[in-house]
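Aim 2 progress update. The chain analyzed this quarter is reproduced below.
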Amino acid sequence: MTFGMVILGRQGSGKGTQAVHIAEQYEVIHISTGDMLRAAVKEGTELGIQAKGLMDAGELVPDSVINGIVQERLQKEDVSRSGFLLDGYPRTVGQAIELRNLANDDLKLAINLEVSIEEVTERMISRGREDDTEEAIARRLELYEAETAPLLEWFTEEGILCRIDGLGSETEVYARIVEAIEDKIL
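Predicted C-alpha cells:
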C-alpha cells in the first residue's frame, strides 16, 4: 500500500530530522521543496528554468510554478511505487488543495510538530547560524504563523491533521509520530 504524508512545523521544530526517520522506517520518498526546486533547476525543466529566474531575482516562487514542480515529482516512478513524505509543501491552502487533487486518496496524514515559539527560537539561536538573529527568526516565524494557521485548519477539516508534541528527545518525539502513523494509516 502506498500513501502520502505531509510534515509541518515551525523552523527549528525538528521536522527535517524526523522526516528522515519516517522515510527510512516506512520506505517512503522524502521530498523537500528546497530539494525539488534545486533538482528542477539542475535538470533544466521548463518549471525549473522559471523557478531559477525568480530565485535569482530574489522573488518567491509562485504557487503555479511550485505546484507544477511538485506534480512532476509526484509522477516519478519511485513515488508511485513507494509513496511520499512532503517537507516544506504545501505552505498555503491553495497548495494543499492542489496537492489533494494530485495525490487523490493517497494523501493520508498531515503531521504538525508542535513546538512553542520560545523553544524553536532558543533552538535556532543555539545552532549559531549567521542568519539566525533574534529579529530574523522572529520575522520568519511570524510569516510561518500567518501562512500556516489557515493550512492547519484546512487539514483539520480534511480529517487528516495529527498534532504531535515536538518537545522531548528525538526518540520520544519519533515514538509519538509512529503511533500517529500506525493509528491513522496502517
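The chain has nine helices and five strands. The chain has one domain: 4-184. These observations will guide the mutagenesis experiments scheduled for the next reporting period.
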